[in-house]
Amino acid sequence: MSARRPGADVRGDFPVLSRTVRDGRPLVYLDSGATSQRPTSVLDAERRFAETSHAAVHRGAHALAEEATDAYEDARARIAGFVGARAQDVVLTKNATEGLNLVAYSLGNAGHTPGAEHLALGPGDEVVVTEMEHHANLVPWQELCRRTGATLRWYGVTDDGHLDLGSLELSQRTKVVALTHASNVLGTITPVAELVRRAKAVGALVVLDACQSVPHLPVDLPALGVDLAAWSGHKMLGPTGIGCLWGRGDLLDAMPPFLTGGSMIEVVRMERSTYAAPPQKFEAGVPMVSQAVGLAAAVDYLEAIGMDAVAAHERALAARLLAGLEDLGGVRVVGPPLVEGTERGGTVAFVVDGVHAHDVGQVLDSRGVAVRVGHHCAWPLHRRLGVQATVRASTHVYSTEADVDALLAGLREVQRFFGVAPAVAPLAVSTSQGAPA
Q1: What is the distance, to the nearest Å, from the Cα of residue 170 to the centroid of all Cα atoms in its chain?
Q2: CA torsion, ordered 243, 248, 251, 257, to nearest 10 deg
Q3: What values do phi and psi take at 178, rounded to 5?
């Protein structure tokens, strides 16, 4: 049986896409960068688990507890396989933000934890990020620096939305390099291999924010050479309330726990406790089991289509949108162009000349077109680009050319409504002998 093709062929798998909004208009969903929609198979997996096997995992010896534990650990194994990892190296978290905070908090406590002292940061050390990070991969590192006395530095961004690799030199003081794999605003895919090479040359850890790459591209985390990586389930057709943190096994072994309490312990006495091996060491309390089961179903769904096909589909839609915006005129795209050989994802952010992004979004919403407007949790990047807010269109496996065309038609209406439509160049009028006037 041939693989299913992304686009119109799979839209029937997503119930929400059949509904209407705003006085009966068909829903055009182009906000998958914020959160993606769930196919029926994911919804069914969550419901089936809740109806038949719901129980707390890793505690209790009854039948339901065993079934729930098996379902949870099987889900972990399938999720790990999706990114080329071992199950024991994947920690299930609430979301990517929690995963990144886990790392930053753990490193902040390393100096007080036997066996983890080599991970500790202090005054004189540096944490390096990039100017295109969204807040989830910026604020935790700001806090780590505040608590340890380390200094935060960053790679800048060029005017066309690429990482400026000449803007910063790493040194022996650099202890952590934390960067996004794909910008949630620009669509830029960062040169991870080069940054890993630079970081390893000075002995720094590399933490990857994979929120906008794992859901959209084929990704093998161990092969990338990074040390840790975090992403969210709800951006890859899975449920909200679950994310993933992958780490090198020896690193997870050494890192102090984040949250403490039940389920993450080895031996507990009144004076002190010892902790379980990873990943349980980082999963205190009863975890989100039905969400893990749902995320594993999302992995199955994406694998059945193929991540190469997903990436090619989104790149084709981005090409259609970028060409349409150029034809429209009066629109400034922020981010690199989509040309052959360019490492770029499907996210497209732009500014309509003379119209605030929120007004653009309101007109589009009135036509049933859902996009993201604002700074997209990437405020410093917007300041760097000299824009207060942008409109962002982001696609996924269920998006179609018709969605893109509906957005472009909506933008024509925006320009007409606000009276900012660019002047159309007059057609050349032939006089005698075909010479233009």
Answers
A1: 26
A2: 20
A3: -115, 120
For residue 372, count other CB atoms closer than 10 A to its CB: 23
- Between CA 237 and CA 245, with CA 242 as vertex, the angle to 5 degrees is 105
**Cα–Cα distance between 152 and 425 in angstroms, integer?**
50
Catalytic residue from among 145, 211, 244, 377 = 377
Q: How far is CA 17 from the centre of its chain?
A: 22
**pTM to 2 decimals?**
0.94
Q: 92: closest CA among 104, 106, 102?
A: 102
Q: How many CB atoms lie within 10 A of CB 430?
A: 10
Residue 436 pLDDT greater than 50, yes or no: no
Is the four-CA dihedral 349, 355, 358, 360 of positive or negative sign?
negative
Q: What is the rounded distance in angstroms from the CA atom of residue 134 to the CA atom of residue 377? A: 5
pLDDT range class, residue 405, cuts 50, 70, 90: very high
Q: Is 377 labeled as catalytic in the residue annotation? A: yes
Give whole-number Cα distances, 359 to 124, 331, 382, in Å: 46, 14, 18
**Cβ(184)–Cβ(377) below 8 Å:** yes
- Residue found under tokens 């018709």: 402
Query: Measured between alpha carbons, how far is 102 from 90 in angstroms, rounded to an integer?
Result: 13
Residues 6 or more apart whose CB falls under 8 angstroms from that of 312 comprise none
Cβ-contact 82, 68 below 8 angstroms: no
Amino acid at 90: V
